[in-house]
Amino acid sequence: MLVLAQQDSLIIEQLGEDLADVEARFAEELRSDLECVNDLAAHIERYRGKMLRPTLVLVSALACPKEDGEAASTSDAHRIIATVAEMVHMATLVHDDILDDAEIRRRGKTINNLTTNETAVMLGDYLISHAYHLCSSLPDAELARMIAFATNTVCEGELYQLHNRGNFALSESAYFEIIRRKTASLCGMCCKLAGYINGVDEAVCETLYGYGEKLGIAFQIVDDVLDLTGDEQTVGKSLGRDLEKSKLTLPLIHYRETSSAEDAAKMVEVLKRLSNPELDVAEREKHVGQIAIDLREHASVEYARDVASKLIEEAKESIIACLPKSAAQELMLSMADAVLSRDF
Amino acid sequence: MLVLAQQDSLIIEQLGEDLADVEARFAEELRSDLECVNDLAAHIERYRGKMLRPTLVLVSALACPKEDGEAASTSDAHRIIATVAEMVHMATLVHDDILDDAEIRRRGKTINNLTTNETAVMLGDYLISHAYHLCSSLPDAELARMIAFATNTVCEGELYQLHNRGNFALSESAYFEIIRRKTASLCGMCCKLAGYINGVDEAVCETLYGYGEKLGIAFQIVDDVLDLTGDEQTVGKSLGRDLEKSKLTLPLIHYRETSSAEDAAKMVEVLKRLSNPELDVAEREKHVGQIAIDLREHASVEYARDVASKLIEEAKESIIACLPKSAAQELMLSMADAVLSRDF
């Protein structure tokens, strides 16, 4: 979870309690009368991460005043929506682990601790189904409608990204469209729904959406940069996976657009070579390392980080302009910064 | 779609119009601003089948009287639930096409016209997400809750089945538990929700659920029998797929339980051989053909068909006892028979 210094300790305590409640609801919702299903659900624990989405719901709830002017607080509805958002996010992680034939040949089953692709598909479906089941325990169908709208958009983003695999001419605007949909739409919706539940007016809801969306885009940019230049130990997964999958991300697009035609063509050649599943590990690592060096030297990594920073600044300004000053508002600002420093 | 002779022509006309409306809503709901998503959604057409689930919703709606004693009719809510049920079903079909590594090696990509496993996963998710999005356009969250309860159960059934792959000692009761969940729960819910929307009392809702559930179980038994003994042309897919996947179905369980210990052991040996992805096609076909002969000679196919017939009789009796005589009730009885003769 987020490490935040110097925040109001009451808020931090409240948030900790709420997140523990979210974890309990998560486990409770997934419980089955079939033991084999419970065993699989236990696997999901290994996907449990930074709880970014639930935290966005809860902190937004605390930061925006209620309709009747009462002090902001979190409600059962917030904790349910927070659980639903985490469940949907976990489902996308489980489904992201589904392998293609080329990858299966290359990686064997090491990447996938679950028994088979088919089991991973069904386990992800089980999560999605339970997310909606839990969401529909709230009597206002509009909440489920908005969550589903966000997940429609997430799926579109994923499909758009798959469609653009191997498209080495991917434009910057198409890249932003992909990550806005696949990552940022759910983050935006988490913040918006917190406000909606508190009954704040539509303009505030939209500002909250914008804050979450910008955080989500920045988060994904940083994630993509780490895949290229991070430290495997810190990132916790093998690097260069986007390169292997011929997924162009912001630093590469910047490099292609701003380097000489010759250098750009050379980069594309290397990317094509990396997409070959038969490539041996040593050569793969050499290429990935060289790309990281080229991107740094060309300031393409810096460019991507700057774009992310600018989005974070905008997100923070919008919250300062729109919400009353409070410890929770401070927390929203700190969360935004944490996306950049990757304390999340 | 269902071919029914001698039914009240007004009912048939109504049903035809409603099903056309369901198809239109289905296409409308999936429309995206991204062309690549629309192209993929067009692939889904090839999965469009007999519209069993939407038909169950609509016919149940017409057969059970409304709370206020008015003549039964279908409403927008029925047509929406019918569309949602078809969308969920299509998602399971798309996800059933996800391949495992062994299968990929054996079949190449012929079985999967979509580009990759990953695209099939996301396209299925897109369908599920839109199903809930559409469902939540109805203000009563309880409808989405009940649909999600059914899809929770479907996923459990699929996971339970995957868990039991290669379990050649699978009991008859475990087999029924699998198909009750993976196939029959959604069919049951389709019928129940039609009554719920019409405001009929809970006992009638449960009878409707039972009718749909029994139809679903019978449907799956017949489907499993056809995989063993059907005609490839008629069934429209290659036979023996359950055998290759080491999925035991009712005729095999009956054979194992009622034949000599020696014959049962021999059958298990053949099943183990069939699960080998390296087995050549000629040998595979020889084994599948021999199993079909053994099952017929041992009356195991007849046994499975008898179980399905008995369920259909029970389903029909429950409807005759519970609902007023009407053309729609007649249609429910004909639908039950159609499951056996596989006009569906």
TrEMBL record, chains A, B:
PROSITE patterns associated with the record: POLYPRENYL_SYNTHASE_2
Q: Does the keyword ATP-binding apply?
A: no
Q: Which UniProt keywords apply?
A: Magnesium, Metal-binding, Transferase
EC numbers for this chain? 2.5.1.90
Q: Tell me the InterPro entries matching this sequence.
A: Isoprenoid_synthase_dom_sf, Polyprenyl_synt, Polyprenyl_synt_CS
Keyword Transcription regulation found: no
Q: Which cofactor does it need?
A: Mg(2+)
Which GO MF terms are attached to this record?
A: all-trans-octaprenyl-diphosphate synthase activity; metal ion binding
Q: Which PANTHER family match?
A: ALL TRANS-POLYPRENYL-DIPHOSPHATE SYNTHASE PDSS1 (PTHR12001:SF69), GERANYLGERANYL PYROPHOSPHATE SYNTHASE (PTHR12001)
Mind telling me what this protein is named? Octaprenyl-diphosphate synthase
